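Fold sample X.
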Amino acid sequence: MNKAHEGHPGIIRAKIKLREMYWWPSIARDIEEMIGHCQGCQDSAKSNPQSRMPTDPLWLPKAPWEKIVIDVIAPFAMAPYQNRFAIIVIDYLSSFPIVELCPNHTAEKMMEFLTKLFARY
């Protein structure tokens, strides 16, 4: 257990490291107890309380299309009509996806697609 805790990686990483080599019924509890008594880990946790706080609060939109996610998937080797790329837009609130297949993903193509999309919705 001391070898898995070397470098003070934290409870989760120590469990993963130890479970790669060993198993016994109370392995999780034993690791948690050992790390709970580790002075180095306790000092580190006290000196850095912000490490446990989320960096960004979750912001949920109040209406559809208030927040969207845009991604490009590429390239598709055997796509029809030379459309090797897919532009994907997902509405954050409803998870509604919209996909456009295209031969390239230049800034001009993205603007053309988004202009049509926003005009439609």
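Fold sample Y, listed below.
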Amino acid sequence: MRATLHAAGVEVQVFADVTPEPPFECVDTVVRAITGSPECDCVIGLGGGSVMDAAKVAAAALGLDKAARELAGIGRVGTRRTGLLLAPTTAGTGSEATFVAVLTDTTQDLKVGVVDPSLLADLVVVDPALTDSQPAAVTAAAGIDAVVHAVEAFIARVATPLAQGLALEALRYLGRSLRAVCRTPDDTRARDDMALGSHLAGLAFANSSCCGVHALALPLGGRFHIPHGVATGGLTAAVMRHNSLVCSEAFAELGAALGWNIREPEDFSSKFDALASEVGVCAALRGVRVPASGLPELARMAVGIRRLMDPNPRVISEADAVRIYSAALNLS
């Protein structure tokens, strides 16, 4: 890409030090690097969700004279003055399709959202070939996260018909390709399906919301440095088991899109658990040492993330959250 841009007469500065689950300080470093160079017309985020989220917030922060941490929350950016182009190299986060970025607050060991319409990219390039070199663990974690995005976008209290249609179409692609690409990484048809399914899932939750799974994943992932897709994928079966009392019709539709035969609402959780286990996400989560004594604090933090808990189809109390964490982490 750099050579192509240079050939077109575009001056390029590369920042390649974005860490996984990036902290706010990483974005501040990017902004300082850009500010100290010739005028920047556009920020390009070429990478996975961490890179794209950092690029989104960096582009928004340029010219604001604010630290990235000051943009955390909802609607704190205003008008973005710098162009933003996103090109995902993983199939899962859907960050290229949304106005949300998740960064790590190292002072609290907590993943925090920056939510603002100005984080929507001006141009998105979804090229499945960019995902060909994904490591197997990233393929699995990012892929299962895409499935979670579609599921939560469909069941959210704020879901719209548009979001639900996008979610079902996303699951049709993801359901037939996630297992295939984990088994056969060079399956280009499966890679194509994953890239499209991930993008559709991102569009789905951009027009709806994520819910309890993501609320529970943010403090867990932030405190114990767990990759986002491992946290969401490993928590989903337990959260959906909690939601099953009010989601029987939704689970039947979601299951059909995924190619699953759902006879009872609980079947959806079992099928999801089997998928997450097969691709290695459940084992990855349960391999993290999380003390049972720390679950109440995680639950308190998760329940406090109202932008994600409020859309969940069934209320999750702190006691419910402890129970869900315990089940997902195999502590009960």
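Sample Y note: The radius of gyration is 19 Å.
Also: Strands lie at 42-47, 73-74, 83-88, 100-105, 110-115, 123-124.
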